[in-house]
Structure formats: structure tokens, C-alpha cells
């Protein structure tokens, strides 16, 4: 309640009381002229603090349950007090004013409030909103998504990340039924979702480019295979902890269907083997980031395949892949040199920026206990962006006692100097 009052105050502060009254008069039937606008001058900072304090306190969640109880948020006339009752007075506010509220608020939470209570405004709003997050919902995410999905047909980015699992297939189905333009979806930690959700997305959201189902452990690989056969524009896929879904068969399907894939997290998907990863490396040449942490069955074959097949690889996670040996390290290092040589032919003006953009910039080989210092040192020496400086390691070797002698220069000078000489020759 307080937050809404705060918004009135914000309007009078921001646009000025006069223009507010002008807006009000331009509006359609005005029944609420008697609303008192305090001519208080408040700073935006103070206002935001006030609003956030109220939103944090969980009031909003309660208010939503009131709205939900009163029927899908459309009427917004909650009988049991709360936000619904207060807000019924907002229905006749002119569009311009409400637009202003949203732009001032810049906050998904207020978008949702407004869409639930202001009939005329809501439709226009829905057509304009492309990005929403429900991650702040602690209790009513499922109902809220079901009742609001149809109002946001232009939605492109949606976060349904959960602190406690509450989302069910019905909500994802609602999203898939109405939000056909969706590009980015975060469904992480949705333990309660089943394959129905993935099938719904595969039918309704063909333009998905980023999908995060990290920790959603109940999906099967058959459903994931189907999804990748429909959503072929995927660029970023997080399957961390999806032990059932991330099988070799699924990786083969990804390799076949998603040749634009740039980032894939397979953390703790401990059922995958070299078979899956080598297909991936040959089918997805755009890969820049691959996390294989805890994939205990993979061996050097996987790393060699990635080193050879994915020239843009920037980040590789091999944490706890204990069957990785020096051979994997040497293949990474060797590929850097091959590429470096190719580059020097046409080095010219952009060699410096290529240095920054190409090659491994992050390698996590923590707990890879079979590695020896010379092999790791070779990787380190091949990629200027890898280092072991305190505070900002990009070569992570913690837990590898045998590697304490590995040392990558912190100061960029040694690497840079070497490169500079190289590119001078290239001229
Ligand atoms: C996916 O979700 C997890 C868990 O919520 C989060 O840690 C991670 O940053 C997300 N990844 C991407 C690429 O969005
Ligand atoms: C996983 O999904 C199946 C249906 O596909 C369901 O019966 C089961 O209860 C789910 N498991 C969990 C832990 O939610
Ligand atoms: C692991 O993969 C095999 C086939 O490669 C499959 O039979 C098995 O069910 C999978 N295990 C899990 C936990 O999904
Ligand atoms: C290395 O990878 C593991 C597994 O993903 C992660 O828990 C750890 O934080 C990483 N180390 C660093 C320093 O990023
Ligand atoms: C991993 O290494 C262990 C011994 O270090 C070996 O017994 C096992 O067969 C290896 N796994 C694979 C998939 O090569």
C-alpha cells in the first residue's frame, strides 16, 4: 500500500503537480479526482528505498494472493482488503500516467501489479513488455504465471528461477501457449517440472536461444532430445545437474540440431562419456564455454575433441574430471599455437584485439589430480589470458597439490611482449 502511495508522490515529484493534473484531465472518465496528491518533494533515491522496503517485506506476495483469490487479477477487487481494494481506484488513471509509473519504477514487480489491476492499460502494457522476472515470488509463482502469461504475448526474456521449488508444468504450458516470441528462459531449480514442460516449450517457443534448466533434475533425455529438434537456435544451454536429461544420446541430438550453440553447462551430469562430448565438439563449432565439472567418466578424448573442434573455446571447466591427463593439456596448448600461427598471417591492425578475444581465458582443473606441472605450464604459456595471480585466478588449480610449481605470469608484460614481437614480424 505504502509503495503505491509512494508512486503517487514520485509522479508529483517527477513530472510536477501541474502536468499530473493535466494528464488526469485528459484521461477518460475521471472518478477519482478527489485523490489527494501530496505536494511533497521526495528524492527518487528515497522513494526507491521506500518501495523496495515494502516489496522486500513480502507484502507483495500477500497482495498477489489477494488478487489471485479474487479471480485471475482481472477484476482486482479483493474482498479481503489488501492491495486489490486500494488499487480499484487506479483503473481510470490515464495511460500516460501509468506508462510513466512503469518507466519510473523500471521494476518488473510494478509491471505485474499494474497489469493485474488496470484493465485498459494492461493490454497496451502487455504488448510492450518484453522482459519479466518472477524470481522474487516466494509463494505464488505458479498461479501468477498462469494468470498473467496471456497478457504478455511479446515476452522475450522470462526468469522463473526459484528459491524454493514451486513451479509446475501448468505454468510452463501457459507460457508456451502464449509467449511464442520467448528467447530466454530461466527455469532453474524447478524440481517439480516434468517432461510435459519441455514438450510444451518445444511446441510453443521455437525461438529460444537461452535456456537454463540447471537443477531441474526430473527431465528425461527423450524430452531434451525432442526440445533440441524443435528449438534449433539455442545458443546457451544450462543442464547443470540434469543427470537424467544429459545423456550421450541427448548430446548427440544437440550436436545434430543446435550448431549455433555457444555455451553448455553439463556440470555433474555424471552419466555422459566421451561419446557424447566428441559428437558435441564436431557438431557445435561455435562453442565458447563448456563446463564438464564432475563428469567423472570423461577422459582426454573429450578434451582433445573440444580443442580440435571448437576454435572459439574461451572457458573450460574440468573440475573433478579425474581421468584427465597431461595429454588433454598438451592438446589444448597445441591448438592455441596452430591458431596463433594462422592469425599472424593476417594479423595487421586487429592482432591485439584478437589476442584478447581468442583462446582460453578460463580453465578450471581443480581436483584433476593426474595432471603434472609441465603440461599445465604449457597451457598456461599458450594462452595470455590464463593466469594464477592472487584474487583473480583464471587458471584454477586448487586441490592439485602436485601443481604448486605452476606459475602463470600475473603482470601481462611477458605475454604481451612476446605477442608484440610476433605481430611486428607479421607486418
Ligand atoms: C542458470 O541458473 C543457475 C541456478 O539458478 C545460475 O546459477 C546460473 O547462473 C544460470 N545460468 C545462466 C547461463 O543463466
Ligand atoms: C518426476 O516426474 C515423474 C513424472 O514424469 C513424477 O511421477 C515424479 O514424481 C517426478 N519426481 C519428482 C521428484 O518430482
Ligand atoms: C546413464 O546412461 C545409460 C545409457 O548410457 C542409461 O541406461 C542409464 O539409465 C543412465 N543413468 C541415469 C541415471 O540416467
Ligand atoms: C571450479 O569448478 C567448480 C565446479 O564447477 C566450482 O565449484 C569452483 O568454484 C570452481 N573454482 C573457481 C575458483 O571458480
Ligand atoms: C578412469 O581412471 C581409472 C583409474 O584412474 C580407471 O580405472 C577408469 O577405467 C578410468 N575411466 C575411464 C572411463 O577411462
TrEMBL record:
Signal peptide positions (record): 1-16
Name of the gene encoding the protein in the UniProt record: LOC100822312
Recorded GO CC terms: SCF ubiquitin ligase complex
Keywords attached to this entry: Signal, Ubl conjugation pathway
Pfam families cross-referenced by the UniProt entry: DUF7885
Entry superkingdom: Eukaryota
All copies of domain F-box/LRR-repeat protein 15-like leucin rich repeat, residue ranges: 168-340
Biological process (GO), any one: SCF-dependent proteasomal ubiquitin-dependent protein catabolic process
Protein name per UniProt: F-box/LRR-repeat protein 15-like leucin rich repeat domain-containing protein
Naturally occurring in which organism (per UniProt): Brachypodium distachyon
InterPro entries, sorted: F-box_LRR-repeat, FBXL15_LRR, Leu-rich_rpt_Cys-con_subtyp, LRR_dom_sf
Amino acid at each position: 500500500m505504502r509503495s503505491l502511495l509512494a508512486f503517487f508522490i514520485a509522479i508529483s515529484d517527477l513530472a510536477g503537480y501541474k502536468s499530473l493534473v493535466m494528464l488526469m484531465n485528459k484521461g477518460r472518465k475521471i472518478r477519482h479526482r478527489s485523490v489527494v496528491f501530496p505536494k511533497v518533494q521526495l528524492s527518487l533515491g528515497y522513494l526507491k528505498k521506500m518501495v523496495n522496503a515494502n516489496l522486500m517485506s513480502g507484502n507483495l506476495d500477500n497482495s498477489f494472493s489477494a488478487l489471485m483469490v479474487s479471480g485471475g487479477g482481472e477484476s482486482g477487487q479483493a474482498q479481503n482488503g489488501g492491495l486489490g481494494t486500494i488499487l480499484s481506484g487506479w483503473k481510470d488513471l490515464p495511460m500516460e500516467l501509468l506508462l510513466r509509473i512503469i518507466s519510473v519504477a523500471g521494476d518488473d514487480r510494478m509491471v505485474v501489479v499494474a497489469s493485474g489491476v488496470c484493465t485498459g492499460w494492461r493490454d497496451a502494457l502487455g504488448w510492450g513488455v518484453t522482459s519479466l522476472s518472477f524470481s522474487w515470488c516466494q509463494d505464488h509463482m505458479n498461479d501468477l504465471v498462469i494468470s498473467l502469461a496471456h497478457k504478455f504475448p511479446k515476452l522475450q526474456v522470462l526468469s522463473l528461477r526459484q528459491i524454493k521449488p514451486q513451479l509446475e508444468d501448468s505454468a510452463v504450458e501457459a507460457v508456451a501457449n502464449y509467449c511464442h516470441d520467448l528467447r530466454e528462459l530461466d527455469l532453474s531449480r524447478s524440481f517439480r517440472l516434468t517432461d510435459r514442460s519441455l514438450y510444451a516449450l518445444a511446441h510453443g517457443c521455437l525461438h529460444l536461444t537461452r535456456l537454463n534448466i540447471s537443477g531441474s533434475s526430473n527431465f528425461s533425455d527423450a524430452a531434451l532430445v525432442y526440445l533440441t529438434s524443435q528449438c534449433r537456435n539455442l545458443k546457451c544451454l544450462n543442464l547443470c545437474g540434469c543427470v537424467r536429461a544429459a545423456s550421450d544420446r541427448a548430446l548427440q541430438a544437440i550436436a545434430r540440431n543446435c550448431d549455433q550453440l555457444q555455451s553448455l553447462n553439463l556440470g555433474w551430469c555424471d552419466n555422459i562419456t566421451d561419446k557424447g562430448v566428441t559428437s558435441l565438439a564436431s557438431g557445435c563449432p561455435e562453442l565458447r564455454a563448456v563446463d564438464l565439472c564432475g563428469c567423472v567418466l570423461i577422459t582426454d578424448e573429450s578434451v582433445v575433441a573440444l580443442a580440435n573442434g571448437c576454435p572459439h573455446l574461451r572457458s573450460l571447466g574440468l573440475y573433478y574430471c579425474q581421468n584427465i591427463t597431461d595429454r588433454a593439456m598438451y592438446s589444448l596448448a597445441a591448438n592455441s599455437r596452430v591458431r596463433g600461427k594462422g592469425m599472424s598471417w593476417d594479423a595487421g591492425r586487429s592482432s591485439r584485439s584478437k589476442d584478447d578475444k581468442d583462446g582460453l581465458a578460463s580453465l578450471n582443473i581443480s581436483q584433476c589430480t593426474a595432471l603434472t606441472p609441465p603440461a599445465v605450464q604449457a597451457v598456461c604459456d599458450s594462452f595470455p589470458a590464463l593466469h594464477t595471480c592472487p584474487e583473480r585466478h583464471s587458471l584454477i588449480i586448487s586441490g592439485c597439490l602436485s601443481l604448486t610449481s605452476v606459475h602463470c605470469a600475473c603482470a601481462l608484460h611477458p605475454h604481451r611482449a612476446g605477442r608484440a614481437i610476433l605481430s611486428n614480424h607479421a607486418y
